[in-house]
Design brief:
Layout: E1 19-21, E2 27-29, H1 30-34, E3 49-50, H2 89-93, E4 110-116, E5 119-124, E6 138-145, E7 148-152, E8 155-159, E9 164-167, E10 173-176, E11 183-189
Antiparallel strand pairs: 1-2, 1-3, 4-5, 5-11, 6-9, 6-11, 7-8, 7-10
């Protein structure tokens, strides 16, 4: 278990609930994982998930039977347990806001809906001010509800439900002047630094 964020060196003791890891246990703080990294490991490109807090063990516990997996958040009715293939915007929206972090003091305005390989699909519903910073992977926004202005670099675009926008890795961007109830799907994919 790594004791610090691999990007900013923030301490991450075993008991902290704010660490994120990939399947290779590369370790990141919540601010780096949910901000600039876009929930993707910059080392392997894998999805970042919260690392379970681990306390000190003095002896090994007896093995307990594993519980049946719960359906994933936002899974369609009747979806088999585990990773969903279909998610519902209303079910995911009910999970927003998420945990408060230094970057998102009012709670994370997004939730991951689907993941497969380097692809990560999130529902993003900012409130007040969009605090995003440039991400390390390419992303596509598909507006789900409400209207907003999407600024990419120095250019602003009016967006509404059904509109699709590409933001390349590293581009400065954010939603401005968005309506209450605004939400967009975000698809992150590909390698760190984007595709050439």
């Amino acid at each position: 278990m790594k004791p610090a964020c691999e990007r900013c060196a923030a301490p991450l003791p075993p008991t902290t609930p704010t660490a994120y890891i990939c399947s290779f246990e590369c370790t990141w703080c919540a601010d780096c994982a949910t901000g600039p990294l876009g929930r993707a490991c910059r080392n392997c490109g894998g999805a970042l998930r919260p690392r379970p807090p681990r306390g000190e063990r003095r002896s090994l516990p007896e093995a307990a039977p594993e519980p049946a997996p719960e359906p994933a958040p936002g899974a369609a009715p009747g979806e088999a347990p585990g990773a969903p293939r279909v998610v519902r915007a209303d079910a995911l929206r009910a999970l927003i806001p998420g945990a408060a972090t230094a970057t998102w003091p009012q709670g994370e305005p997004f939730v991951i809906g689907l993941e497969h390989g380097s692809l990560s699909l999130e529902l993003y519903a900012p409130v007040g001010t969009d605090r995003q910073t440039p991400h390390e992977r390419d992303e596509v926004y598909v507006v789900e509800s409400g209207r907003a202005t999407l600024r990419i670099g120095e250019t602003s675009y009016a967006v509404r439900p059904g509109d699709v926008a590409l933001v390349r890795a590293g581009e400065d961007h954010r939603f401005e002047e968005f309506e209450a109830g605004f939400a967009t799907w975000v698809l992150f994919w590909g390698p760190i630094g984007g595709e050439l």
